[in-house]
Write a structure and sequence with these properties.
eight-stranded mixed β-sheet; Rossmann fold; about 55% helix; 8 strands
Length: about 300
């Protein structure tokens, strides 16, 4: 940490697939980190990299100037953020709470109200990327909440991400993350159908992927997924179960806004089919295998 950066102690709650690399990059940038996770092996991993061991959520919140959370769903986010032993109740007034989870705008707004009552500055700090991207410090960070808090924590954001966008004062970052994940989910279905059509029609698997990666449809997602797809490696960077959770958040948001999402609804059915046939823990791009199965491709 250089002399221009404040002596900020960061708390980090949720040392999972995304939390571990983000907390590691804060340590690499010179920030002291106190961490907490209910899984002892995850907590041991970040402690071995230099973090202090937090005994509870409340302890982390009391000890830190800025608290990050990286959590899997609405229910866990609510339980960590709220309540007498939660983050908000134990942060100092004017401290900053940065949540990086993919959760619903409705639950996030509930947390925002509690933060306002306590005088805590709450930033919705959603991220785009997977664990590999997070380890490289190359996440795209989408933030909304108090502008002064955003400006204050920009050095921490730059420690975990390559690009940062300030989107507004309320739930804009939550909505933007759902829009991004909508495109990822629909793209997974599109890739699965395109590759299955080509394969069943006699195209060579590796050549198809080389052409797609060289064509004008070669998004960063296509470029990233092409090498493991060539090897038919469906090891999870983001599981089909987790991606389906995100699709459900998207569809709930669309229902509230009266937006018909026909493509997303169809892809949700594909994900459910993949999960029902035992592929839930595989990478979400394993939709390819599910479309192949539906098409009778061995």
């Amino acid at each position: 940490m250089n002399d221009a950066q404040p002596a900020v102690r960061a708390g980090f709650i949720g040392i999972g697939n995304m939390g571990l690399p983000m907390a590691t990059n804060l340590l690499k940038a010179g920030y002291p980190v106190i961490a907490c996770d209910r899984a002892s092996d995850r907590l041991d991993a970040i402690v071995s990299r230099g973090a202090a061991r937090g005994g509870s959520i409340a302890e982390v919140a009391r000890e830190a100037d800025v608290v990050f959370t990286s959590l899997p769903n609405d229910a866990i986010f609510r339980s960590v953020a709220l309540g007498n032993d939660g983050v908000i109740a134990n942060l100092r007034e004017r401290a900053i709470y940065m949540d990086t989870s993919t959760v619903s705008p409705a639950v996030s707004a509930e947390v925002a109200r509690a933060a306002d009552e306590r005088g805590v500055r709450y930033l919705r700090t959603t991220v785009s990327g997977n664990g590999v991207v997070a380890a490289a410090g190359a996440l795209t960070v989408m933030a909304s909440g108090p502008r002064d808090a955003y400006e204050c924590v920009l050095p921490l954001i730059h420690a975990i991400g390559r690009r940062a966008f300030y989107l507004g004062v309320a739930e804009e970052a939550r909505l933007m993350k759902l829009a991004v994940n909508l495109m990822i989910s629909v793209s997974a279905g599109m890739i699965g159908e395109a590759l299955t059509l080509g394969r069943k029609s006699g195209l060579d698997w590796s050549q198809m992927l080389e052409v797609l990666a060289s064509s004008h449809v070669a998004s960063p997602m296509v470029l990233y997924k092409a090498p493991p797809l060539k090897e038919r490696d469906f090891s999870s960077t983001m599981s089909a179960i987790t991606q389906t959770k995100d699709v459900d958040l998207i569809l709930d948001c669309a229902a509230e806004s009266h937006v018909p999402l026909h493509l997303t609804s169809a892809v949700r059915g594909l994900f459910q089919g993949l999960i029902s046939t035992g592929g839930g823990e595989e990478d979400y791009i394993a939709l390819v295998k599910h479309v192949e199965m539906l098409s009778g491709v061995a």
